[in-house]
Amino acid sequence: MAMNSILNADDIKKALDTFAVADSFDFKKFFDMVGLKNKSSDDVKKVFTVLDADNSGFIEEEELKFVLKGFAKDGRDLTDKETKAFLIAADKDGDGKIGIDEFTWLVKE
Q: Which is the most buried residue in 22, 47, 56, 87, by most CB within 10 A?
């Protein structure tokens, strides 16, 4: 499933452009800019499925680094600092990965 079948392609591009500089990524602002925050829980789960590249049911740290590429192929990689901050914010149970409920909570926060 392509991300632009869930979210508006122009909104995705604007958000990616906003956070194009390394260490500028703010997941709360990003989710708001792409319109994910206002989507249904089902749509948020669809986005999670796209970002869960290995279909493990979790977004692991290695997948998180490439999260912007999940929104568009030309998205940049997150820096290690951005990846760790994102993981710490989302990983509520401390297992080192983000489950679907944690992701949904983070988006809707």
A: 47
